[in-house]
Amino acid sequence: MEVLRYTRDMYGQETLQGVSWDLLPYFAGAAAIIIVGHLAYSFYANGK
Asked: Do 9 and 15 form a contact (C-beta atoms < 8 A)?
């Protein structure tokens, strides 16, 4: 799996085209875990 995608421009230099969309589910899952963890911690810390 490529994390970064590169292409060559008209001068033959390698340029960054973008990042791979294959990583999107991993980052979305990590964000969901952080949000749920923060919600659980805030409920626990406030005693509700």
From this structure: yes
